[in-house]
Amino acid sequence: MNRVSIVVPVYNSSRFLDECIYSIRTQTYKNIEIIVIDDGSTDESVEIIRKHALEDERIKCYSQKNRGVAVARNKGIQLSTSELLMFVDSDDTLFPNSVEILAQHSDCDFIMGGYEILNMENGEIQVNSCPKFWGKADKFFMNISMYLTPPFLLSPCFKLFKKSIIKSYNILFPERMNYGEDAEFVLSYCEHIKTVCCENRSCYSYRKYGTDSLSSKFRVDKLAINNRINDHIISDILLYGNNNINEIECRYVQNYVEYAKELFTVDMKYKEKRRIFFKVGLQENMLERAKQFGRLSVAQKLIIGSLRTRLFFPVYLIFLLKGKNEKVKV
């Protein structure tokens, strides 16, 4: 039975941290090492970690000044002593047999499972069953679009990685990024794998919070980062000898649609929204990207049409009202 190192980065997570660590401690798969990295928490997180460490010798806890989740995860990788690595966020939980589900396929280089999303506003649970797969990496990348929506591939959670691959190719979470670093790590890892196994059973519960603070989360650079991730996905596809990138190219336009819809609803002056809409759309060559494939959805036609004609207000009003109506229904 191979040992599995589970890395948990923590920053002010006292609300759910006890439940998170307990879900790891009570795994049916007992041969685990739990590495908890406190990233300068100022709440009761450290006390919760210490309590569990006193009760379970498999827990190793380390503290550092607040430097971000990427630095904390990289520290966890460095301190781990197992060949198999798993990452768990401190406000999420594992199912009792999560590690067992993934570790049974430890002969593969990259192992991925399904996950559930717990909506913290209404308590509803969305189950995302990962399409089953077992085979070589080139075959996996021939069907990569199946693992991008919902986003199975781009998170480091609900997966097992091999430390030998990470170490051999110096694969780390980019520490200067605070958005998209997860995807960059996973995609960089996937450049060096030979075999893949995907389990359709859920092995991770992810908490989804409300959108009341959407304005504080909006990032002007979000589209550029998402497009860089798309570039990386295409690079991996071509690396494994697959030239069918049409479905991935569609993601560029859809990313801009989602970016625009989010921009329309944030707490920002109208003139600033308009400026960002056109500046970012043109910088990211969205008009040229839209020409690369034929059929656009209604939303894509409206937003790309607005970018092309420089008529902002009609489309802005349509999506603003639509967004408000959807909020009222919820």
The fourth-level CATH homologous superfamily of the largest domain is Spore Coat Polysaccharide Biosynthesis Protein SpsA, Chain A
What is the CATH-assigned architecture of the largest domain?
A: Alpha-Beta Complex
User: Main β-sheet: number of strands, strand sense, barrel status?
Assistant: 9 strands, mixed
Estimate what percentage of residues fall within beta strands.
15-25%
Query: How big is the Rg?
Result: 21 Å
Helical proportion, percent range: 40-55%
Q: Can you walk through the features of this model?
A:
The structure is a single chain. This protein is α/β, with parallel strands linked by helices and 330 residues long. The protein has 2 domains: 4-208, Spore Coat Polysaccharide Biosynthesis Protein SpsA, Chain A (Alpha-Beta Complex), CATH 3.90.550.10; 214-329, no CATH class. Helices cover 46% and strands 18% of the residues. It has helices at residues 14-25, 45-55, 69-79, 98-103, 137-142, 163-168, 181-190, 214-217, 222-239, 246-265, 270-283, 286-291, 298-309, 313-329, and strands at 4-10, 32-39, 59-64, 84-87, 110-119, 125-128, 133-136, 159-162, 195-208. Strands 1, 2, 3, 4, 5, 6, 7, 8 and 9 form a 9-stranded mixed beta sheet that branches. Helix 10 packs across helix 13 (298-309). The longest helix is centred in the last third of the chain and has 20 residues, at 246-265. The radius of gyration is 21 Å and the shape is globular. The N and C termini lie far apart (47 Å). Keywords: Transferase. This is Glycosyltransferase. GO terms for molecular function: hexosyltransferase activity. It holds the Pfam family Glycos_transf_2.
